[in-house]
Amino acid sequence: MMETRRIGGGRLESAGYDAGEQRLEIEFVDGSLKAFKAVPAEVWRRFVASPNPASFYADRIEEEYAFDAGRTAGDSAARAKLDSLFGPGPASD
Q1: Which of 30, 45, 64, 75 counts the highest number of beta carbons within 10 A?
Q2: Of 22, 25, 15, 20, whose CA–CA distance to 1 is shortest?
Q3: Could you tell me the CA-to-CA distances from 17 to 4, 20, 85 in Å, in that order?
Q4: DSSP letter string over 26-44?
Q5: Does the model's pTM come out above 0.85?
């Protein structure tokens, strides 16, 4: 189960961690998403406890762990493509 928290400061919006999979997901203010693999729970704890999570991310996570990049579900371009294929879905908040 993924634990998610709002992260303030810099270009970070929120972060989530799944201890079972050792997966760290970070959402950025521009809507992009990076999912980092094999991140120990201690790194997650230190990240969310850091007085400056953006600096901790840049120094301890960004270049240390492999990641998959993606977009968040709110990506309007992706939504428009799906709508053109399947028709408009339910309205979102």
Answers
A1: 75
A2: 20
A3: 6, 9, 33
A4: EEETTSEEEEESS--HHHH
A5: no
